[in-house]
Amino acid sequence: MKKLLAMALALAMTLSLAACGGGGGGAASSGGGAASSGAASSGAASSGAASSGAASSGAASTGGSSASSGDLIHVGFAQVGHESDWRTASTKSAQEVFSAENGYELSFVDADNDSAKQLEAVRNFIQQGMDYIIIDPIVETGWDAVLTECEEAGIPVIVIDRTITDSDKYDAWVGSDFKVEGLACGEWLKAYAAAKGITEINALVIEGSTGAGATIGRTDGFKEIADREGWTILDSQTGDFTEAGGQEVMESYCQSYKGQFNVVICQNDNEAKGAMTAMDTAGVSYGVDGDVIIVSFDANKPYVQMVCDGKLNANFECNPLAAPTVDEIIKTLESGGTPETEIYVTESWFAAEDNVPSITVNGQEQPVVHVTQDVVDARPY
Ligand code: AHR
């Protein structure tokens, strides 16, 4: 009954917004949160000209020349920021998919890793009467109030990539299982160490941004295996998913833990690059021929090349191409259907050597891809 009333209110709000010229076509929010497990999506970006290029901070930028056309579906996207190569791939994919050529007008806000700015962007999207709002949440919490406002305005919300844990007032989520990524990293390290005859693991972790779903999942997953195997995690500090952050943390680790560590876990590619710079300066060797095993997450093409070149021992993919799946969700809502509420993107694990052919996580065996130049060349981002 409560849900029926909410739906009726949402419908009324949608109609009143449409009457005020707020853009038509948006289906009323179903209001349900993540629930069922979804089919994996391969996430290849659809074609279409990219809109307005590089992300700017703060104010929304719109792409597409026919922005005033009432036929376009108006989508507001509150992006995390521009902290990493992964983020650039995510933004580019969204700008390609939500183009005027594909029937969309995209209002894009780069929140510059500032949660207050991201909440403000969502509230502005409500004011502007968007048909749909896409959020990649910087942090997992603090969302219920603004999502309630979206629901009351009758605007469907689709969450991508990172998770929201303090509210279920969104229509669908598309992203990665970050804990599985962390578990996969741990299981691969266990098998790799066994293959190499390494009996002791002393690891340093460079975490992502504090409070982000990606950081929490990867940290928890890796720690679960470390605890089970009796490994030592010497330290775990945030590098904020940036190259500068990774370098800074690793510089301090190289001083504090000189000669004590044999594994560095970087929670994204940019941090790994920064960590390599710090280890180069400190005279610490890493990678396939080095003293320190270094692994990363994301698997952007230049960093899969680093795996191929033996500079990174392994890389655990985080697929940034959620936008094509969001496009499908919007099309389902537009035609009056009900989309799946929780959809996982497909992800692969990459290694420089072929001594760990597969790993099993949560009872599911998955191959570890031995990276050759052909594998690098086939990377979509
Ligand atoms: O939320 C996804 C993470 O955020 C990616 O691993 C990282 O590169 C990005 O900044």
Tell me the distance between the termini.
46 Å
Query: What compounds sit in this structure?
Result: alpha-L-arabinofuranose
> Helix share of residues?
25-40%
Backbone structural class? alpha/beta
How much of the polypeptide forms β-strand, as a percent range?
A: 15-25%
Overall strand count:
15
Q: How would you describe the shape? A: elongated
**Contiguous runs where pLDDT drops below 50 for at least 5 residues:** 1-58, 63-68
CATH homologous superfamily annotation of the largest domain: Response regulator
CATH fold description of the largest domain: Rossmann fold
- The overall average pLDDT, rounded, is 86
- CATH structural class of the largest domain: Alpha Beta
Radius of gyration: 22 Å
The major pleated sheet works out as: 8 strands, mixed
Contiguous helical run count: 11
Number of domains: 2
Order of helices and strands: HEEHEHEHEEHEHEHEHEHEHEEEEH
CATH architecture of the largest domain: 3-Layer(aba) Sandwich
Lateral strand order in the biggest sheet: 8-7-9-10-11-13-15-14
Detail the topology: elements first, then pairings.
Elements: H1 2-19, E1 61-63, E2 73-79, H2 85-97, E3 104-110, H3 115-127, E4 132-135, H4 144-152, E5 157-160, E6 172-175, H5 178-196, E7 202-207, H6 213-229, E8 232-238, H7 243-256, E9 263-266, H8 269-282, E10 293-298, H9 301-308, E11 314-317, H10 323-334, E12 342-344, E13 349-351, E14 358-361, E15 364-370, H11 373-377
Parallel strand pairs: 2-3, 2-4, 4-5, 5-6, 6-12, 7-8, 7-9, 9-10, 10-11, 13-15
Antiparallel strand pairs: 1-3, 11-13, 14-15
Helix pairs in contact: 5-6, 7-8
Bound molecules: alpha-L-arabinofuranose.
